[in-house]
Design goal:
Membrane topology: Multi-pass membrane protein
Strand content: under 5%
Subcellular location: Membrane
Protein name: MFS transporter, DHA1 family, multidrug/chloramphenicol efflux transport protein
InterPro entries: MFS, MFS_dom, MFS_trans_sf, Sugar_transporter_CS
Structural class: mainly alpha
Pfam families: MFS_1 (PF07690)
Number of strands: 0
């Protein structure tokens, strides 16, 4: 307990340990809700398409629309937060997300529903571009990495329990009521962030100095983005982060079809099969919390690649041999464990690959990685990855294989620099 509280006593902006703790919990709550809007809703998508008289092809599209919404305005959110501060942009994002969720019960057309999913996904963009840099700028590197791992475990309650909870809630309420609940919780989170979220731009820092607001000019914004596109380390990290995440997000989008439609599982059984996978992700984050002070970032990424690649190979081999769900799950668990170690490590390494304002860097990082995740997941779905477990297992391994090249280039540069 003393170790955990000590993390909050070393903040780089003036706030008490209690204030820092509540801020981190509320930040995790906002991130959790943006995941809940996906994970709790996905089991309900078969109800949504039936209620709105739409084809089942709209089931994975709901996730893709959400992800694309997350990437659409990051190019603007990042520079705005560099200029006007993280706090006001964070509050705007949380308020907009709450409003979009509360509008969902009034929708009666599938295309309007998908459009609203896009709007809800914009809230995810604020998490990536504002919340993450705010946390990274508020604490020293090792503490920030550990806090990212701890808060990720809180946020992972959504993919861990969301599908099961969504299946259980659908027995007592409609999908429309689910959105009302998420919207109400988002309003409560907004109130907490309004009270406890600090500012890191233009305020004195405990180690001296301050992060100056960046000028907001179109030419400077385009220049910063152009510089990032020419930054080899940044681009390699951004592309790799998106590519290694595709199997997990494809599973979230396609598992309702694979498990409920193809295998005939009910919503509760569907949720139970998600538990070991996202439990593996949580275990990986706990391992990262232990290893953060013992290994540098490149070593953590190399360590993570072993279970990421090994898990996908195990999944593909087992599923091709038997075609059974029990052959797929162990490989996904091992892969998820590796993602728990590698995701935050690769994000931190990529975020600080450039000296530009972290809002702008996080925006470009989010745009590239989420666009790759969304387009990659949509491509796997279009190629028939939802047709069978074996097809999914083989298709999901391809993007990670592609990611090995930019990762090798990135880690080679880090080795030379060291």
């Amino acid at each position: 307990m003393h170790l955990r509280m000590s993390l909050f006593s070393r903040s780089l902006v003036p706030m008490s340990p209690r204030h820092a703790l509540l801020f981190c919990l509320l930040l995790a709550a906002f991130e959790l809700l943006t995941y809940v809007a996906s994970d709790v809703v996905m089991p309900a998508m078969l109800h949504v398409v039936r209620d709105l008289d739409a084809p089942s092809s709209h089931v994975p599209l709901a996730l893709n629309a959400y992800l694309l919404g997350g990437v659409a305005f990051q190019w603007l959110i990042g520079p705005l937060s560099d200029r006007y501060g993280r706090r006001p942009l964070l509050l705007i994002g949380a308020a907009g997300f709450a409003a979009a969720c509360l509008l969902a019960p009034w929708i009666n057309d599938i295309h309007l529903f998908q459009g609203l999913r896009f709007v809800q996904g914009i809230g995810l963009g604020f998490v990536v571009v504002v919340s993450y840099p705010l946390l990274q700028e508020s604490f020293p590197e090792t503490d920030a990495l550990r806090l990212m791992a701890i808060l990720a475990n809180i946020a992972l309650l959504s993919p861990l329990l969301g599908p099961l909870l969504g299946g259980l809630l659908l027995d007592v309420m409609s999908w429309r009521a689910l959105f009302v609940c998420v919207g109400a919780l988002a309003i409560l989170t907004w109130l907490g962030l309004w009270r406890f979220a600090p500012e890191t731009i233009g305020v004195p820092r405990t180690e001296g100095g301050q992060l100056a607001p960046a000028p907001l000019h179109l030419a400077s914004i385009l220049g910063s983005y152009g510089e990032l596109l020419r930054n080899g380390k940044f681009m390699q990290g951004s592309m790799a982060l998106g590519l290694i995440s595709i199997p997990l997000f494809s599973w979230i989008g396609l598992s309702p079809l694979l498990l409920m439609r193809n295998l005939g599982l009910d919503a509760t059984s569907y949720g139970l099969w998600q538990l070991p996978i996202f439990g593996g992700l949580i275990a990986g984050n706990l391992a990262l919390n232990y290893a953060a002070g013992r290994f540098d970032l490149p070593s953590l990424i190399r360590l993570a690649l072993l279970p990421i690649v090994g898990g996908l190979l195990l999944m593909a081999a087992g599923t091709l041999a038997s075609g059974r769900l029990m052959a797929l799950i162990p490989g996904m668990v091992v892969y998820a464990f590796g993602m728990g170690i590698g995701n935050a490590s690769l994000y931190r390494l990529t975020l600080f690959a450039s000296a530009n304002g972290k809002g702008t860097v996080a925006a470009m990082l989010g745009m590239i990685s989420i666009a790759i995740i969304g387009l990659g997941s949509a491509s796997l779905a279009a190629l028939g990855a939802g047709a069978s477990l074996a097809t999914f297992a083989c298709a999901a391994s391809i993007p990670v294989g592609v990611a090995l090249w930019p990762l090798w280039r990135l880690l080679k540069q880090e080795t030379v620099a060291a």
